[in-house]
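Q: Got a minute? One more chain.
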Amino acid sequence: MTRLMFKPLRTFFVALSMATMAFVAVSPMQTAHAQARVLPDFTDLVDQVGPSVVNIRTMEKVTPRSAQGGPGDEEMLEFFRRFGIPMPNMPRQAPRQNRPQQEEEHPRGVGSGFILTADGFIMTNAHVVDGADEVIVTLTDKREFKAKIIGTDKRSDVAVVKIEATGLPAVKVGDVGRLRVGEWVMAIGSPFGLENSVTAGIVSAKQRDTGDYLPFIQTDVAINPGNSGGPLINMRGEVVGINSQIYSRSGGFMGISFAIPMDEAVRVSEQLRNSGRVSRGRIGVTIEPVGKDLAESIGLGKPSGALVRAVESGSPAEKAGIEGGDIITRFDGKTIEKSSDLPRMVGGTKPGTKSTLTVFRRGATKELSITIAEVESDKPLAKASAREDKPKASAAGQAVGLSVSELTDAQKKELKIKGGVRVDAAVDAAARAGLREGDVILALANTDVASVKEFETALSKHDKSKALPVLIRRADLTQFVIIKPAR
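A: Always. Here it is, folded:
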């Protein structure tokens, strides 16, 4: 009886023991699997991509201050003359200008790069090789080559150099479009000259605005001086960016690094390899972001697009009919979310291409055709000439703190506008909004203003409880100013 009673109990303990053993056997595997997902192993990636990463040293030629080294004799003699000290007996030498000055090579900097093609094309940062008299590339097998600079592009900070070698291990270029925020990435480079250093982290953000033409990849991968030009690598062993910049208050790594997206870098490198320079498109406008208050007050909705402040004379934009105060919302059908999107889109378009712009003007959208020109050296905006005697002022607009007057024909011709009224005085709400004497009002609340009468009419129709968007011309720039209602 006793045995029969304890038998089921013993069976339970045996079953429990087996379950416990099974748990103990499975639990470490599950833990290891979870750790493998959270903390990836980079060893295979280093073996795969490491041989493609190079160290780059640059040299510059320096002329010594004197043939003998150290301070020149002439400077020493001048010191004695100036302070009335008796001249020491010094050996006579040929005058400085007649003595041979031999140039000496001095180290200039250290950076990183990676092999693009098996026949020796290497990509790095423009700032790594810019101004260098000699570029020395060291491979992981310790072979050294003098490199030729094929081309540099300061706007994108991309450079291509070439070494005379074949059968080199080239990198695989990844698809930046597949890159996700939070994804693990790795960097290999030469921080502080320490070759083949490996660091890792995650993608912190994409499309980070820090440059005119490049939306950078932000990571928390440790990047320091010397890492510049090295590759940013995804978990598939593909290069997705070029490590280029860091945010730092100390000069060292602080957890924020920036890499040039590889798709942008490849486009630049192809042009550098083909012609040694980069050709970019331009349309000839000065732009700024669209603020929330402005977007709401003119009926645009969300604050997107690029607000045109000035149109360059004779530019493609002027020929296409773009005006100051227009908001460019689309380029070739692509939405412009931020004002910085426009120069990137236009810059990436081949000069001579016919494109389409969508602009928001006076509460409505328009499609404009434009032919892209090539980027040239910046031209200074022409300064406005001295104005003629002021016409008699009008008292219109006192409710918003404005006193305006008609423009003369000469003033309209000078500013290249068809109409508008000149601000003779701005006080109260108008002054708080930033209006000042000499501004020219072109439109009020999406209504063109060609005369004082039209100014008064537009102002009388506006709901005084709402913000008043005012399109103005100030010198060569066009901008919006918002007069807020009194509370």
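A: Residues 1-24, 66-71, 78-85, 377-395 have pLDDT under 50 and may be disordered.
Q: Perfect, thanks.
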